[in-house]
Design a protein that fits this description.
By secondary structure, the protein is mainly α. The chain has 10 helices and no strands.
Amino acid sequence: MSVTTVPSVTTALTTPKTLIPAPQRNHDTRGDDNAWTRLIEAVRESGQYTTRSEAERVTRIVLSALGGHVIGDERVDLARALPEEAARVVASQIPATRRLTAAEFVDSVAARIEGATPATARWDVSSVLSVLPPLVGDDLITRILAQLPAGYALLFGRVDLSPASQSSVS
Protein backbone atom coordinates (compact mmCIF):
# COMPACT_ATOMS: atom_id res chain seq x y z
CA MET A 1 0.00 0.00 0.00
CA SER A 2 1.45 3.33 -0.99
CA VAL A 3 0.91 6.58 0.83
CA THR A 4 0.64 9.85 -1.09
CA THR A 5 1.33 13.07 0.75
CA VAL A 6 -0.71 16.07 -0.30
CA PRO A 7 0.51 19.51 0.72
CA SER A 8 -1.77 21.22 3.16
CA VAL A 9 -3.80 24.05 1.66
CA THR A 10 -3.49 25.96 4.93
CA THR A 11 0.30 25.83 4.82
CA ALA A 12 0.39 26.99 1.23
CA LEU A 13 -1.86 29.96 1.98
CA THR A 14 -0.21 31.08 5.21
CA THR A 15 3.44 30.64 4.34
CA PRO A 16 4.63 33.82 2.65
CA LYS A 17 6.94 33.42 -0.29
CA THR A 18 9.43 36.17 -0.88
CA LEU A 19 10.08 36.56 -4.58
CA ILE A 20 12.38 39.57 -4.28
CA PRO A 21 14.59 39.62 -1.21
CA ALA A 22 14.46 42.77 0.84
CA PRO A 23 17.71 44.74 0.76
CA GLN A 24 19.89 43.94 3.71
CA ARG A 25 21.16 46.81 5.77
CA ASN A 26 24.56 46.57 7.33
CA HIS A 27 23.57 48.36 10.48
CA ASP A 28 19.93 48.95 11.30
CA THR A 29 19.89 51.31 14.25
CA ARG A 30 16.43 52.85 13.78
CA GLY A 31 14.65 50.81 16.42
CA ASP A 32 17.58 50.75 18.82
CA ASP A 33 17.09 53.20 21.67
CA ASN A 34 20.72 52.88 22.70
CA ALA A 35 22.14 53.58 19.23
CA TRP A 36 22.26 57.35 19.83
CA THR A 37 24.05 56.80 23.15
CA ARG A 38 26.56 54.46 21.48
CA LEU A 39 27.18 57.04 18.73
CA ILE A 40 27.82 59.78 21.29
CA GLU A 41 30.12 57.51 23.29
CA ALA A 42 32.05 56.65 20.12
CA VAL A 43 32.46 60.36 19.36
CA ARG A 44 33.42 61.04 22.98
CA GLU A 45 36.12 58.39 22.81
CA SER A 46 37.32 59.40 19.34
CA GLY A 47 37.54 63.08 20.24
CA GLN A 48 38.65 62.50 23.82
CA TYR A 49 35.89 64.79 25.10
CA THR A 50 35.62 64.99 28.86
CA THR A 51 31.82 64.95 29.01
CA ARG A 52 29.01 63.24 27.17
CA SER A 53 27.25 66.58 26.70
CA GLU A 54 30.29 68.04 24.94
CA ALA A 55 30.43 65.05 22.59
CA GLU A 56 26.69 65.33 21.94
CA ARG A 57 26.92 69.07 21.19
CA VAL A 58 29.77 68.53 18.72
CA THR A 59 27.97 65.58 17.12
CA ARG A 60 24.82 67.61 16.54
CA ILE A 61 26.76 70.53 15.05
CA VAL A 62 28.84 68.38 12.70
CA LEU A 63 25.91 66.22 11.55
CA SER A 64 23.88 69.36 11.00
CA ALA A 65 26.60 70.81 8.80
CA LEU A 66 27.00 67.51 6.94
CA GLY A 67 23.24 67.23 6.41
CA GLY A 68 23.27 70.32 4.23
CA HIS A 69 25.97 68.94 1.95
CA VAL A 70 24.87 65.35 1.41
CA ILE A 71 22.03 65.19 -1.08
CA GLY A 72 19.85 62.75 -2.98
CA ASP A 73 19.82 59.02 -2.28
CA GLU A 74 22.98 59.29 -0.19
CA ARG A 75 21.27 61.67 2.22
CA VAL A 76 18.24 59.39 2.49
CA ASP A 77 20.43 56.33 3.00
CA LEU A 78 22.57 58.14 5.57
CA ALA A 79 19.49 59.14 7.55
CA ARG A 80 18.20 55.55 7.40
CA ALA A 81 21.50 54.13 8.64
CA LEU A 82 21.94 56.55 11.55
CA PRO A 83 20.26 56.37 14.94
CA GLU A 84 16.90 58.13 14.87
CA GLU A 85 18.10 61.25 16.72
CA ALA A 86 21.08 61.65 14.36
CA ALA A 87 18.86 61.00 11.34
CA ARG A 88 16.59 63.89 12.36
CA VAL A 89 19.59 66.21 12.63
CA VAL A 90 20.82 65.26 9.14
CA ALA A 91 17.42 65.21 7.44
CA SER A 92 16.22 68.52 8.89
CA GLN A 93 18.88 70.55 7.06
CA ILE A 94 18.15 72.55 3.95
CA PRO A 95 20.51 71.51 1.15
CA ALA A 96 23.41 73.92 0.70
CA THR A 97 23.33 76.18 -2.33
CA ARG A 98 27.10 76.03 -2.76
CA ARG A 99 29.40 73.05 -2.32
CA LEU A 100 32.07 73.78 0.25
CA THR A 101 35.61 72.53 0.02
CA ALA A 102 36.68 70.42 2.99
CA ALA A 103 38.53 73.42 4.47
CA GLU A 104 35.46 75.65 4.03
CA PHE A 105 33.31 72.95 5.61
CA VAL A 106 35.60 72.87 8.66
CA ASP A 107 35.51 76.69 8.81
CA SER A 108 31.69 76.60 8.68
CA VAL A 109 31.69 74.24 11.65
CA ALA A 110 34.17 76.47 13.48
CA ALA A 111 31.72 79.36 13.05
CA ARG A 112 29.03 77.31 14.84
CA ILE A 113 31.18 76.38 17.84
CA GLU A 114 31.90 79.12 20.33
CA GLY A 115 35.63 79.71 20.71
CA ALA A 116 36.59 77.21 18.01
CA THR A 117 39.62 77.66 15.79
CA PRO A 118 40.08 75.94 12.43
CA ALA A 119 42.34 73.40 14.16
CA THR A 120 39.85 72.57 16.94
CA ALA A 121 36.98 72.48 14.44
CA ARG A 122 38.93 70.04 12.26
CA TRP A 123 39.39 67.85 15.34
CA ASP A 124 35.67 68.05 16.10
CA VAL A 125 34.65 67.27 12.51
CA SER A 126 37.03 64.33 12.28
CA SER A 127 35.96 63.03 15.70
CA VAL A 128 32.37 62.76 14.46
CA LEU A 129 32.83 61.79 10.83
CA SER A 130 35.47 59.14 11.53
CA VAL A 131 33.01 57.12 13.63
CA LEU A 132 30.43 56.98 10.84
CA PRO A 133 31.99 54.34 8.50
CA PRO A 134 31.63 51.45 10.97
CA LEU A 135 28.12 52.63 11.80
CA VAL A 136 26.68 53.25 8.33
CA GLY A 137 28.95 51.11 6.16
CA ASP A 138 31.92 51.81 3.95
CA ASP A 139 29.88 51.61 0.74
CA LEU A 140 27.65 54.49 1.81
CA ILE A 141 30.64 56.57 2.90
CA THR A 142 32.24 55.95 -0.51
CA ARG A 143 29.05 57.17 -2.22
CA ILE A 144 28.91 60.25 0.02
CA LEU A 145 32.56 61.06 -0.68
CA ALA A 146 31.91 60.74 -4.42
CA GLN A 147 29.47 63.63 -4.28
CA LEU A 148 31.61 65.89 -2.08
CA PRO A 149 34.62 67.90 -3.26
CA ALA A 150 38.09 66.42 -2.81
CA GLY A 151 39.53 66.56 0.69
CA TYR A 152 36.61 65.18 2.69
CA ALA A 153 38.02 61.65 2.85
CA LEU A 154 40.54 62.65 5.51
CA LEU A 155 37.71 64.02 7.66
CA PHE A 156 36.08 60.57 7.54
CA GLY A 157 39.35 58.93 8.58
CA ARG A 158 40.19 57.67 5.12
CA VAL A 159 43.25 58.20 3.00
CA ASP A 160 42.46 60.74 0.30
CA LEU A 161 43.35 59.07 -2.98
CA SER A 162 42.10 61.87 -5.20
CA PRO A 163 44.66 62.96 -7.80
CA ALA A 164 46.82 65.91 -6.87
CA SER A 165 45.93 69.11 -8.65
CA GLN A 166 47.83 69.72 -11.84
CA SER A 167 50.46 72.39 -11.39
CA SER A 168 53.27 73.32 -13.67
CA VAL A 169 56.64 72.29 -12.37
CA SER A 170 59.63 73.95 -13.96
